[in-house]
Amino acid sequence: MGETVAIGEFEVEVRRARVRRVTLRIAPDGSVRVTAPNACPIQDIEAFVRDKATWAESRREGVLRARREELAMWSDGGCVEYLGEALTLSVERDAATHAAQFAERSGERIIVHLADFTTSEEVTGQTQALVEAWLEERMEELLPGLFAKIERRMQLRCSGWRIRRMKSRWGSCNTKTRMICLNAQLVEYPIECLESVIAHELCHLIEPTHNERFHQLLDTYYPANREARRILNLRPPRR
């Protein structure tokens, strides 16, 4: 059995490794893990954990709260946003053995069709996967027109674009290949936010850095970018 130390009412798992210092991490499920050098005395690890206890407890509660909110989001009656519009999630089960599983929009709802044999443990994950696939399809439909509009305005073109799930960035631009990547979650925000990120990345084809010239270009080609950025900053990408 591995080593453990205590923080308040919960235990911290200790993992030994070929590392130079002690580190503490809060996992997505709320568990707390410490990685320590192989030769580090357990007393030193306990002292490190005590020193980090207040931060760890606060951080752990934040992680658990975010997890609860995420589970509620992908449950029946949850709220999913599409281009800034709040849609109610409705999860339905189909009794047919080989029924297709998919998501579709109906008015102000997104209906997720799941097979009847889907277990309760699988529902949240499958619902999230199906809704995200539906959102990504809508984004795929929108992007050609949005890129064409903004590229005409800027009188330049990228070589292509991709949709990716990013943990901390809204977009990226490879100035050598002229390829642009966009965060899949952008389709959840008002369309001005999506357009703003497209304009932002296209500006990097003119000015690679975020210097004064870059911001002047962005303000010129997409004046609404500052308000769009404010909205995006209020709700960063989900990790």
From TrEMBL:
Transmembrane segments: none
CDD domains linked: M48_yhfN_like (cd07344)
Pfam families xref list: YgjP-like
Domain OmpA-like: 1-30
Keywords: Membrane
UniProt xrefs under InterPro entries: OmpA-like, UTP_pyrophosphatase-like, YgjP-like_metallopeptidase
UniProt signal peptide: none
Cross-referenced PROSITE patterns: OMPA_2
Organism superkingdom: Bacteria
PANTHER family: UNCHARACTERIZED PROTEIN YGJP (PTHR30399), UTP PYROPHOSPHATASE (PTHR30399:SF1)
Protein name stated in the entry: OmpA-like domain-containing protein
Organism lineage string: Bacteria, Bacillati, Actinomycetota, Coriobacteriia, Coriobacteriales
